[in-house]
Amino acid sequence: MRVGKLGDTAQAASQLAMPDHEVTRHVEDLVGLHLLRPLPGSEDGVLVPVSPEAAAAGLVTPHETRLRHQLAEAERLRGQLTSLAPLYAQDRLQQEAVTQLAVEELLDTVMALIEHWSTHCQHEVLTCQPGGGRAQELMDKAVSRDLTILGRGVRQRTLYQHTARASAPTQEYVRRITEAGGEVRTLPQLFGKMVAFDRTIVFIPCADIPTGAVVVREPSTVAFLCQAFDNAWSLASPYAPIHRGTAMPDEIKDAIVKLLADGMKDEVIARRLGMSLRTCRKHIAEIMDRVGAASRFQLGYLLREHQGVDPGARA
Question: 154 lies in a domain?
């Protein structure tokens, strides 16, 4: 079927009752869709219709070919990038390990980090401080910082050893902190030194660097350390000051007896209970006198043979 020349639209316009310019526009659209094409061998521009399937093949195939090339290029790039995934994952793990467990060697850096978290914590501070009483200078700095924390409505719990009850600077610190809402308890022995903020980050001592700290952010490790604190807290007693001339508390006496019965040396007992070696030996001498032991050998024998004996009662 012949349509006619592209430029000869008068007859078609008359038959279709359409203006010439609309017919021309529609013819151009059909040519653009490959539904009309010039008759092969015709020199007068006669147009003939083309089947929709053939028109689709002629019009769509170049697009499909181009898309296939683009898809192939996309797959090639995907393969290249995916091949880097193991390297990225390994580096990410290393970066996370550094971020979640970091060693800070400088004391100034450690204190700056603790000051930062003290300022920005919102819910809870957990502090475990073994080693008996602390110096006046340290307590003065701590009380200012901790009163500010408590003033923001943050809960603060602190664990000391029983020996800290006899420290005058610690007594004054505890008095001011508890008046502001802080909580302080003591145990004969503590599991270790730590400070935790919002159960999100924990500072613990660095074994090889006395002035340094290990900063722990790994969630499972943080949860474990905070649970250890909670367990110790549930066994601890409220802080009760020991004033000069007061008799040795039963809790300290019992702790010394237990460690003596386990065969611990004086130095180890003193370190574990947070007291000086001189004070430790003084307490041991009092226990020996009370149980009637003439020598350390006899004391050890009596303690092992009579685990239930009350060292406060003279044999």
Answer: yes
Look up residue 266 and give its two tokens: 């004086």
Measured on CA atoms in the order 40, 41, 43, 46, is the torsion positive or negative? Answer: negative
Which residues span the domain enclosing 37?
A: 4-79
Whether 310 is in a domain gets the answer no
**Residues 147, 224 within the same domain:** yes
Whether residue 98 lies inside any domain: the answer is no
* Residues 109 and 209 reside in one and the same domain: yes
Look at residue 172 and tell me if it is in a domain.
yes
CB-based contact 252:188 (threshold 8 Å): yes
Q: What is the pLDDT of residues 152-187, one digit of tens each?
A: 999 999 999 988 888 889 999 999 999 999 999 999
Rounded to the nearest 5°, which phi and psi values hold at 196?
Answer: -125, 140
**Dist. CA 91–CA 86, nearest whole Å:** 9
Each residue of 290-300: pLDDT tens digit? Answer: 777 777 777 77
